[in-house]
Amino acid sequence: MKLSIAKKILLQLWLCALPQLISTVSVNAQILNIESFRLEKDTAKVFLGNVGFGISAKKQTVSVTSYNSNVNSVYLSKLHSYMVLSTLSLIKIANQNVLSEGYAHYRMNFFRKKILSPEQFNQIQYDKGRGMDNRFLSGLCIRYRILYNNTWSISANTGFMYEVENWSNTTEHKKTALLKSTTNLTIKARITPTLSWYMITYYQARCDENFIKPRLITDTSLQFKIANKLNFNTQYVATYDSNPIIDIPHLTYSIKSSILYNF
Q: How does strand 96-109 pair with strand 116-127?
């Protein structure tokens, strides 16, 4: 399908503005937004995905370059869905790697078309900016589909996960291995044929007296369709940890933009 003249002009503007638009602002937070990539398809035996990349550069007394990339894919069988999601971010100053973060996540949704459906997930993650050397987790949850139509999709997940973390800074190193509860509410909206909005809020807490001291996460994204298989994505993530393992700020946030190619 040929692009209209307006879309061609808009695409050229996006590409010309790419170095300014694709940027990472004060990160120190990286939380996975599963629901922004979940698909509600009635078809089966379908493999879909997207690839995203962002870069920004600044030259002052030294050169500062930021990169972020992600690869996401999903396979829909007749009954179940299988998702693999990954991302990597890197900040370089004068050809030296300063900060790096990333994750890989695998999730299976069984009987995906039902109102209540079980899920199993596994994740490996690191975030040098916050002092997280590594995080490994595995869990089970139940997904409740609250609303689904052509415009809105609302669902809630609740379950448990076993989480192992290693954190360190210049003065301390700590390791934890804990059973935690994890609950989230997800809202997806198709605002216009070319603009979509995703939001997910997590409540994650230990299964003891510290349940009232949770890790709260809000992850929201806007995706603007600029071509048949090309989207511009902006994501904002805010995390509040009531009881961090090492001495780091309770509140962290990130803003990232990237170009997504859908396949």
A: antiparallel
> How far is residue 197 from each of residues 85, 107, 146, 208, measured CA to CA in Å?
19, 22, 17, 35
Q: Is the pTM of this model over 0.90?
A: no
User: How many domains would you assign to the chain?
Assistant: 1
* Cβ-based neighbour number of residue 70 at 10 Å: 22
5 versus 157: the higher-pLDDT residue is 157
> Which CATH number does the domain housing residue 183 bear?
2.40.160.40
Question: In whole numbers, what is the pLDDT of the chain averaged over residues?
Answer: 80
3 state DSSP class of 248: coil
CB 139 within 8 A of CB 120: yes
Contacts within 8 Å (CB) and 24+ apart, 241-245: 241/215, 241/216, 242/213, 242/214, 242/215, 242/216, 243/210, 243/213, 245/165, 245/167, 245/174, 245/176
Residue 233's domain comprises: 5-262
